[in-house]
Amino acid sequence: MSKTYWVLFFLLFPLTGCYPQGQTTTDFSDPYSWDFGAVKRDEVLKHDFVLKNESGRILTIKGTNTSCGCTISKIEKSTLLPGETTIIKVQFNTKGYKGEVQQFVYVNTDDTENPVLRFIIKANVTE
């Protein structure tokens, strides 16, 4: 085989989405997204997001909304001092889903510059 073939193989293989079984493809540098990878139908998936108040003032969380009834969220603390963190507990019930799924959790705050924060969970639901 030519050198060109091998160079193309090593450059393009990561783009195929081939990863070891059970490993997620989450970009750990994005604290607003989580990918569960391949999961079985009827599982209840759980993930905790960390929300940090990076503003210079007190941040009040007014509540959360989710993109559907299959996803629920709960915030541990609704008032954050500057630099303080809280946990957003998210559960996604995969019952009735098949294939690639993406759900959203919206966190409503009193921050006038960024009043709604969007968190994303993803999964590939198999039978």
Overview of the structural elements:
This protein is mainly beta and 127 residues long. 8% of the residues lie in helices and 50% in strands. It has 1 helix and 8 strands. It has one helix at 3-12, and strands spanning 33-40, 44-52, 59-66, 71-75, 79-80, 85-93, 99-109, 116-126. The strands form 2 sheets. A 5-stranded mixed β-sheet has the order 1-8-7-3-5, with no helix packed on it. Strands 2-6-4 form a 3-stranded antiparallel β-sheet, with no helix packed on it.
Topology:
Blueprint: H1 3-12, E1 33-40, E2 44-52, E3 59-66, E4 71-75, E5 79-80, E6 85-93, E7 99-109, E8 116-126
Parallel strand pairs: 1-8
Antiparallel strand pairs: 2-6, 3-5, 3-7, 4-6, 7-8
Rg is 18 Å
Give helix % range: under 10%
What is the helix tally? 1
Output mean pLDDT.
83
Order of helices and strands: HEEEEEEEE
Q: Which CATH class is shown? A: Mainly Beta
Structural class: mainly beta
CATH homologous superfamily assignment: Immunoglobulins
**CATH architecture grouping:** Sandwich
| Global outline | elongated
Oligomeric state of the chains present here: single chain
**Cα distance, first to last residue?**
39 Å
Strand arrangement within the widest β-sheet reads 1-8-7-3-5
Query: Which regions contain 5 or more consecutive residues with pLDDT less than 50?
Result: 4-27
Domains counted in the coordinates: how many? 1
**β-strand number:** 8
CATH structural fold name? Immunoglobulin-like
**Per DSSP, what share of the residues sits in E-state strands of 2 or more residues?**
over 45%
Biggest sheet details: 5 strands, mixed
